[in-house]
Specification:
This protein is an all-alpha fold. Helix content is 63%, strand content 0%. The protein is built from 11 helices and no strands. The relative contact order is 0.20.
Length: 178
């Protein structure tokens, strides 16, 4: 399956086109890294997100996806990924190596649509709570589009991963789709 077919399937699930998802990376002036408050702004976003995830007692199946990480590890990994993705220093590469491989790092978790939607709900809540984004409607819209597309991209692209493309995760609940 080509990347364009994966994008089309992701769009069908997420309601966001690949082009829309990329606006957070390419079309904001000043760029998102500046708008959110540089690296510390992404640390705040990741903290707000994982505060929501780890408090989600009504959905223990969702929290189970994060069972292989401590909250502080999860915050740090996500923060590093966001900083690097949105034009900051290569913090994720420093810790995890040359490739980000977003799908490969999540492939062993067999994340399905239900988990993608729950992830998006928590991330959109964190975006709304973020002090530097409260009044920035354009940045919030672009971030929400990016994260919604990418959450569902992981679902779709994971179906086509080869064993040699896996780069993270732990085999947990192998028969279960989150």
């Amino acid at each position: 399956m080509s990347k364009y077919e994966i994008y089309d399937r992701t769009t069908a699930l997420s309601g966001i086109t690949h082009s829309q998802s990329q606006q957070a990376l390419t079309s904001l002036d000043p760029p998102l890294l500046t708008r959110i408050g540089h690296t510390s702004g992404f640390r705040t976003l990741s903290t707000l997100f994982y505060d929501r995830v780890f408090a989600d007692k009504s959905n223990p199946w969702f929290l189970g996806i994060f069972a292989t990480s401590t909250k502080s590890e999860a915050i740090d990994n996500q923060y590093r990924f966001f900083v690097q993705t949105f034009g900051g220093p290569e913090l994720y590469k420093e810790k995890k190596g040359k490739y980000t491989r977003l799908v490969g790092r999540h492939a062993n978790y067999k994340i399905g649509e239900k988990a993608a939607e729950r992830w998006v709900e928590h991330m959109e809540g964190a975006i709304e709570e973020h002090e530097n984004l409260r009044e920035d409607i354009e940045a919030k819209k672009c971030l929400k589009w990016y994260f919604r597309f990418m959450a569902y991209y992981i679902v779709v692209a994971s179906e086509f991963m080869r064993d040699d493309q896996l780069s993270g995760g732990t085999k947990l609940d192998s028969d279960r789709i989150w």
